[in-house]
Amino acid sequence: MSESRYRRKAPFRQAKEEVLVVCGGQTEQIYFDLFKQVFRPSLGNISVITAVEAKNPLQVVEYAIRARQRKRDYNAIWCVFDKDDFTDFDDAIAHAGRHKIGTAFSNQAFEVWFINHFRLLKSPLHRNKYKEELGKLFVFPYDKSRDTVTKVCSALLTEEKVKTAIVNSRLGYERHVAATVPFRPSAFESCTTVYMLARSLLNWAE
Fold first, then answer.
1. Measured between alpha carbons, how far is 32 from 35 in angstroms, rounded to an integer?
2. Which residues in the chain come in under a pLDDT of 70?
3. Which of 32, 50, 194, 206 has its CA 20 to 30 A from that of 109?
4. Distance from C-alpha of 67 to C-alpha of 51, rounded to nearest angstrom
5. pLDDT for residue 145
6. pTM
7. Residue spans of beta strands (DSSP E) within the chain
């Protein structure tokens, strides 16, 4: 895989540019920490942190807002969180939008993004089935342990697989948007906008 196309040749402006990625959990942070290492190995200007005290999506967004108040020179800020059984999912997305913060959300969980590295989910798949589905796609059982998630993310982070995930996730998202009026992400079962963040970081790195 050629990764040089994702690196700027003359990064003289890089010192003043930084993207903050605020994650709602460990799985998301592992993925984007490795993402940064694979596609931007010589640059340290993507900060990936977990809002450890956040208990729901709205608190993840509030964490990001406070982070910007402490440091106002971020080039962009993104929140990464899941729907799970949270009832503030739509409110969190709207709240982030009002504050010009991007949301890379997954309904129901981040593993939808993992699956989209292989195929598009054309019908609802409850998160209770993610473990079984990912077990079929890999040669080892899937669980939420750090070692397993790191192994999975390392296998997924190739240019080809990430591009596949971006295409599949975009198609899924657009299908849900067209079928759900008014716009209500909590109804977008088996949908993720993580592709928007991944695409943004890849484009920004070129």
1. 5
2. 1-16, 41-44, 204-206
3. 206
4. 10
5. 95
6. 0.88
7. 19-23, 46-50, 76-82, 102-107, 191-192
